[in-house]
Design a protein that fits this description.
Blueprint: H1 24-31, H2 36-40, H3 49-79, E1 100-105, H4 113-122, E2 127-133, E3 160-166, E4 174-178, E5 183-186, H5 188-198, H6 211-226, H7 232-245, H8 256-267, H9 276-290, H10 305-340, H11 343-355, H12 366-387, H13 393-396, H14 414-423, E6 429-432, H15 439-442, E7 452-461, E8 467-473, H16 480-487, E9 492-494, H17 497-504, E10 524-528, H18 530-533, E11 539-542, E12 549-554, H19 555-565, E13 569-571
Parallel strand pairs: 1-3, 2-3, 7-11, 8-10, 10-13
Antiparallel strand pairs: 1-4, 4-5, 6-12, 7-8, 7-9, 11-12
Helix pairs in contact: 6-7, 6-8, 7-9, 11-12
Length: about 575
């Protein structure tokens, strides 16, 4: 805005410092006559005694300042009521440092890093582990019975005590640091970090020069655990490239990043479909942590005996239910066959029943007894034929007899489904047509229907035995291998029709997502085409539990229906 004349003119050149801080020792050494050759010499006799005393005094001053700083920090912590943080225990001081930690984990998301951690730590310290099951877990999967290695020491002699509790805690496992303050560390990767900081001499992490690379790998593992199935391969690809150059993720030495990735691959069931570099690495890590395939199977479980008894009781109950269901099926089948029999066969059954009538009182002569019995039976049969009325057509007709394979009567039918729609405010339009078994046979009857028309498959995972109902738009090409990879399944195959009727209450040709209303136990997972639930189409059409009709509802109401059935839905 305006100019200002300088207060005074300065023609003298000022040399500004080129260093951020001064170096008093070097300056003092110059004043004491130390030559440049003496500064670089390794012989102590070349350095003047005065320079050494000055360096010693400076070191003592620095240590004094550090002591004062430590005292101030301790006073501050004491004033805030915070216990001073003790340094991590060294390997030779483990006798006095004996942590006792509790890990809680959902059976559906096992923390596979924990057995590996116990194996690694057991090579240097005494580790005691125990397994318990919370009451919220009704049945523990069989592959988790021998999850942790059997402890080789007593609890009181162990340097580290780990208690694993199977409990429904969600996707992330929890580690309780202090039972008093109820402090939790959540997430498997963070639990691994905790143990690495607890034993830095055994599990290198913070003291490792490549700590930033380790953190990057651990973050990638965390992203893998939370990623959608389609996003997992882009995360694994850079890791495979890294393993192509090195033996392990962060160099040629096994570290906690390898442990975390190994656990994530097992938890997500990705160990069967890995790139060559990852496959080689996975095999090597598996041998290191588990001693090769199947080592855990031979170890005794450290679970509570009460849990084992409860599991046996549950298995016995399940077997009793299965046997009761089979007996019910045999009874229903026999009743159905009886209803189909002619009146003559029914009379024969009554005749045979009469033969089992009480014996005469005269038991002296066996031959006389048999003759008189036969005579009485013949008379009774003649009277029966004369007096027995003809059976009604309603009891012998085929239409009113139950189907031979029907064993469950609680499944909804077409009209019950429509009542379910009406009760929950779902509007629908229905078109009846002849019986169809394929999409091509059905399409000529649906020329006036707009929106998406679904095709459906009832599938079963060959490895895990999980059940899936696949629903897609009728013109979408579906490859089961691609779908299995997209949803994280092992190997999808067609399920048998009897199992389909047991779970969904529909027969072959009638498969429909509407049948989820019959799966009260939510045993079936729906794999649905994104087009059908994203709102890109106004309506969707499926069979109403029979293949002689097609029912249309809005895409919004279809999402509402899925919400009401409370089934797990995976889009692809």
């Amino acid at each position: 805005m305006y100019s200002m004349k300088p207060v005074f003119d300065l023609d003298v050149r000022v040399d500004l410092p080129t260093c951020m801080y001064s170096m008093p020792v070097i300056q003092m050494s110059k004043s004491l006559g130390v030559t440049p050759q003496a500064l670089t010499s390794t012989n102590a006799e070349d350095i003047p005694e005065a320079a050494l005393k000055a360096l010693e005094a400076r070191q003592e001053a620095i240590l004094s300042k550090l002591g004062q700083l430590r005292s101030e920090v301790e006073r501050f912590l004491k004033g805030q009521g915070i216990t001073a943080i003790s340094p991590a225990p060294k390997h030779d001081s483990l006798q006095a440092f004996k942590p006792d930690v509790v890990v809680r984990c959902s059976p559906g998301k096992p923390v596979f890093a924990l057995p590996g951690l116990i194996t690694l730590l057991s090579e240097h310290i005494k580790v005691y582990s125990s397994v318990h099951c919370h009451s919220s877990v009704a049945n523990l999967p069989s592959h988790l019975n021998n999850f942790l290695p059997t402890p080789t020491v007593e609890r009181g002699d162990a340097h580290l005590k780990i208690t694993l509790i199977w409990k429904e805690v969600g996707k992330e496992s929890e580690l309780m640091v202090s039972p008093v303050s109820q402090t939790f560390i959540r997430g498997e990767v963070n639990i691994i970090r905790y143990f690495a900081r607890l034993y830095p001499a055994l599990l290198e992490y913070d003291v490792d020069p490549s700590v930033s690379a380790i953190d990057t790998m651990l973050d990638s593992v965390t992203s893998l655990l939370w990623a959608q199935p389609k996003d997992r391969q882009p995360i694994l690809r850079p890791l495979a490239v890294n393993l192509g150059r090195m033996e392990f993720l962060c160099g040629n030495k096994f570290g906690i990043a390898d442990l975390a990735l190994f656990s994530a691959l097992k938890q997500l069931s990705l160990d069967k479909d890995l790139q060559p570099e990852l496959r080689k690495w996975y095999t090597q890590v598996s041998v290191k942590l588990m001693g090769g395939k199947g080592r855990r199977q031979g170890r005794a479980s450290s679970s509570r005996k009460s849990f084992g008894n409860r599991r046996k009781f549950s298995e016995r109950k399940n077997s009793e239910r299965v046997s009761e269901r089979k007996n019910s099926e045999r009874q229903n089948n026999s009743n159905a066959n009886d209803n189909r029999k002619s009146p003559k066969k029914e009379i024969k059954q009554e005749k045979s029943g009469k033969q089992n009538s009480p014996k005469p009182e005269n038991n002296n002569n066996k031959s006389n007894q048999q003759k008189s019995g036969k005579a009485d039976n013949n008379k009774q049969d003649k009277n029966k034929k004369k007096s027995s009325p003809a059976p009604s057509s309603a009891s012998s007709g085929k239409e009113n007899s139950p189907p031979k394979s029907v064993t469950i009567t609680s499944h909804m039918g077409k009209q019950e489904l429509f009542s379910f729609f009406s009760d929950n405010g779902i509007n629908y339009d229905n078109i009846d047509h002849p019986e169809v078994f394929t999409v091509d046979a059905m399409m000529p009857y649906l020329t006036n229907i707009k929106g998406a028309i679904g095709k459906n498959l009832f599938l079963k995972d060959k490895k895990t035995k999980a059940l899936y109902l696949l629903t897609a738009n009728h013109d979408r090409e579906v490859k089961l291998n691609d779908v299995a990879k997209a949803v994280g399944a092992k190997e999808l195959r067609f399920a048998d029709t009897e199992l389909m009727y047991e779970k969904l209450g529909v027969r072959e040709g009638c498969v429909t997502p509407f049948a989820l209303v019959n799966d009260k136990a939510n045993d079936v997972t729906l794999l649905v085409d994104k087009l059908l639930v994203s709102g890109d189409v106004e309506t969707v059409s499926f069979h109403p539990l029979v293949n002689t009709a097609t029912t249309t509802i809005s895409s919004k109401d279809f999402n509402k229906f899925l919400y009401l059935t409370r089934h797990k839905v995976i889009q692809f």
